[in-house]
Records
---
Amino acid sequence: MATVKKRKLEGRASGSSTPPAVVEKALEKAVEDGPWQTKSETRFTRVLPSRNSKRRSVDEVDAKQAQGNDIDGDDGGSGSEPSGRRAVKQHSSFKPTKTKLQRKAGGRLVLATSEAERLLVLGSYGVRVRAGEATIAGAILSPSDDVQWVHAPHCHAVPVLRTAEDTVLELQPHPAARGLRQLARLNPAFGRLWNETLPQDTDSGRAGKYPASFQIIYTSEDAPKRAVMQELVAPGAWNKKLSGLAAARRKATPVIFLCGPKSSGKSTFGRLLANRFITDRGGARNRPWSSVMVLDLDPGQPEYSPPGVVSLSRISTPNLSPSFCHPTLTPTQGQIRAHAIASVTPALDPSHFIECALDLFAHYQRGPDAKSPLIINTPGWVQGTGLDILSELITALRPTEVLYMSQDGPSETVSTLQSAAAATNPPIPFTPLPSQPTDTAPPRTSLHLRTMQTMSYFHLSQTLAQTATAAATQTWDPAPLTALPPYRVRYTTGFRGILCYDHQPAASLLAEAINGTILALVKVESTRAFRDLLLPPNSSPPAFQPLTTETSPTTQSKTKTKTKTNNKTSNKQPEPPIPLIPNPQGRTLDPRHSRLLGLVLVRGVDAARHELQLLTPLSRDTVSALDGDELVLVAGRFDTPSWAYAEDLCRRRGGGAGEEGVEDGEEGEAEVPWVEMLHGSQKRAVGSKVWRVRRDLGRS
């Protein structure tokens, strides 16, 4: 990629005062006739490297980055329109012509660039470099790489695709785009994120036989209406640090500890760094890392797991999509081990959170990937108990460098973390970096993003291919969860018991407490995982009884009749209760002897059959191999899946209208779900809210 310099249009090269409109027409004609012959830029600040210079690769750009230049910091240009007209922002410098852009079969596009160009592509697509080099979200792509799949909705910063000189690349429609977009029919939070307003004939494909899953955004006028296009911008200090870490990666295995306030860019920087490690060749003798390990310790906004979970994953391909587009990884796709925090914050049990982090780090050290770089992402809780957690993790994990993603404090937090890093032997370097710049408020809140990620997790297709290319093979089932057949799990043989991490309900109220909630399915590897908990009697396999279709009404009628007959003949045997593991002290499973298999949604409790009806995206092979004596269902403070209760209603009303919510329809009260939305203290008596249990009062 060529080094970029911005120049203002000053007329002709000789300095004459030619009107800007004349110059713009000349430039447009030059673009239509062939490659640009001028070094001047339009008032939209085009990216125009010198044609007389030699072809510069990405490595030369890295040298400029190391000096503090910000190649990702350009805003794509902005123009000041005449009074009364909306200002138009230039997002892409690439100008399509018959020779530069060719449409191929299947909706593919082939782009040829003689100059270094930038393209902002909205939607879902695959990119493959045929010649030259290109970069996107920190990943350096070359002709030897396979197709890299991208999901780029405008609810997140859209990554910019940059090409070097004399580059030929191919854009392909994403095979999983349709299923992901159809989730908007079930929840308006997924609506208006892509290129839904694409015209019938555009540069990204022809409508009809090949529906376009992506669109090149040349100017702000090409963007969907009411959409705020924010480009993925990396400050100059980020680029300098990325180049430094990539250049020194062979001296020692890097273990990078990312911390900082909320929304400071920890996840974004970690994604850029992982992509750089995987794809940066750094010279003929220096091959890129084959994989990068990611220790995700942020249960509120995790990258490779649903909310409420911390995980250790192996990443072997660039991550070019937001987290709700890859809500989990199977063991064959890269997940090494995971634990359920059962909450979106470590505040539920800080000690258990630290135990889980130490266990995941120990598996990294003992595993075959101990020589691969490790990126540790932490929560944005940097004060009070959260600061104590970060300090303890720095002391215990001993990373090679601590990066604090803010230069605005708080001063107490910075000084405490610096002291923790300096107290180790040898001292750990501590580097503050600027936060990720944001021009506007994000269109989706943290709660919306958690809802989207959880919903995306439960709608993953159970028949997805078990391969390492997770981003390309993960597909979604757009049917409402109420239309999916559940797994039937018997009380006595399906699992060892239910363990509550937070509130301890009475055994008689357990069915009502867990019905319609999310539970964690945990596999116990040793009885030592229970610590000193009192266990129900042992159960026996099989654990789950999968169903391919729902039980027919005739079968249900026969079953009910048989049950009534049995009750008449014998009323001596009491119904077995749901096994509850008593936990009055609020203890947790030992993460050294247990691990998370996945999350389940309790669709219903069948008291007549003594069964739980569970929904989970776990594959049928995984479920069929489970042993009920090794399974525990963990209840905690997962977000209430209210989105699941209204999916069918949203689908019948024509969901996906947008973030504003579902429009009021003409259906009667019988068509409305039983859920009632309350805001604040509406219809609640004083003191009726759930009391928050503080378990960190003894921490200094």
---
Amino acid sequence: MMLEFRTMNHCINPLSVNMLVSRILKHGKKSLAYQIIYRAVKKIQQKTETNPLSVLRQAIHGVTPGSTQGKALAIRWLLAASQKRPGRNMAFKLSSELVDAAKGSGDAIRKREETHRMVEVNRAFAHFR
């Protein structure tokens, strides 16, 4: 089960999946983090009947702000939004948040829009730095 995901992982985009694994990682249990992501990918495939890694890529791209550390921030926001969701387990909550973010809704998208609004409001005061 894990071997399938790792081979699928390396042919698509290992960087974003590995960043996601390292953010989920707790107490050094990397195999548990991979299991959570693998279950989330399976649930995404069942919900959308499309390629789940393209949904993951769309979700990260949709949440990414226009900054230098954008992808790391997007992954952090996606995981924080999925942890806030009520639900059964982390894989279910993560898959729901990724599908919502790929569609353009969800808490992570709202966090990005809120951050962009704050940047626009405070842009006038940038020269005081």
